[in-house]
Design goal:
The protein has about 250 residues and is α/β, with parallel strands linked by helices. The chain is about 40% helix and about 25% strand. The protein has helices at about 50-60, 80-90, 105-120, 125-135, 150-160, 180-195, 205-210, 235-254; strands spanning about 10-20, 25-35, 40-45, 65-70, 75, 90-95, 165-170, 200-205, 215-220, 225-230. It has a six-stranded mixed sheet, with helices on both faces. It has a four-stranded antiparallel sheet with strand order 2-1-4-5, with helices on one face. It binds adenosine-5'-triphosphate and magnesium ion. Adenosine-5'-triphosphate binds next to strand 2 and helix 1. The site of magnesium ion has 4 residues, from helix 1.
Length: about 250
């Protein structure tokens, strides 16, 4: 099936990102990928393989050293910081690996922050729905420091969903959640895709979480080493196990 420009939610073309210092680290090594509108992709791979860097570059939070990133038809490469900030507020939701909540604001204020910054008031019924689905209705006046890790993660997820962004990037959104809460969050992300046509790109180490996606992309050493339609949790686990076994061999050869 061919992808027309209108179908493209996010694209990366030959993206390179090296972190400097005495011993430079190549975090992304010539990564090209298209994320189609209305789909969910799981990004997997070992620790340090470049997953968070990929998400940050795709969301306009970090700039590649070379290559091109587009959100829809908008090319981020030549944008000023100011315009990039506006684009992120309006069109992108992000759940960070470290939740990045504002400590001085309570749960409700954190959730509403992107809407306040972008000056767009979301539908109150939708806000209630999101808050209910992440199970935070009785915590709205609490500050992040008064919440558990899993609760903070749910605040971050609600914050990313409430403005109904075109693309939702999540970095291990269920890493700190129990199985049942994780299932609720994954169902919420899935419904953003199926009911609202939003696009989800989610980093996860969990084959069960990845099985909610339509597609699984595996990174190793800053490169995409597998890109497949989601084959089911069991097979995903099998692929990751194989990757884990191959690595020492690759290291010896390298
Ligand atoms: N700000 C930075 N400065 C220097 N090196 C960095 C920086 N951020 C990431 N790196 C390096 O880039 C590589 C890719 O990091 P990245 O955070 O993208 O990995 P990851 O796949 O998200 O890992 P994890 O599963 O542990 O979160 C790693 O080797 C990391 O040490
Ligand atoms: Mg990471």
């Amino acid at each position: 099936m061919s992808v027309t420009p209108a179908d493209v939610a996010v694209s990366l073309e030959h993206v390179h990102r090296t972190y400097g210092g005495d011993q430079p680290v190549v975090a992304l090594d010539d990564v090209s990928a298209v994320f189609t509108r209305g789909t969910a992709t799981a990004v997997m791979g070992p620790s340090g393989s470049g997953k968070s860097t990929l998400l940050h570059c795709a969301a306009g939070l970090d700039r590649p050293d070379s290559g091109r990133v587009r959100i829809g038809r908008t090319d981020l490469s030549s944008m000023s910081e100011k315009r990039l900030t506006e684009l992120r507020r309006g069109r992108v939701g992000f759940v960070f690996q470290a939740f990045n909540l504002v400590g001085a604001l309570n749960v409700e204020q954190n959730i509403m922050l992107p809407s306040r910054l972008s000056g767009r008031r979301p539908d109150p019924a939708w806000v209630d729905e999101v808050i209910g689905r992440v199970g935070l209705g009785d915590r709205l006046r609490h500050r992040p420091a008064q919440l558990s890790g899993g609760q903070q993660q749910r605040v971050a997820i609600a914050r990313a969903l409430v403005t109904r962004p075109e693309v939702i990037f999540c970095d291990e959104p269920t890493g700190a959640l129990d199985t049942r809460t994780a299932a609720g969050v994954l169902a919420l992300l899935r419904s953003a895709v199926d009911q609202s046509g939003q696009t989800v790109v989610m980093v996860t180490h969990d084959p069960v979480a990845a099985s909610y996606a339509d597609r699984v992309m595996v990174l190793a050493d800053g490169r995409i080493v597998r890109d497949m339609p989601q084959p089911g949790a069991e097979r995903i686990a099998g692929h990751l196990a194989l990757l884990g076994r191959r690595q020492p061999v690759a290291t010896r050869e390298g």
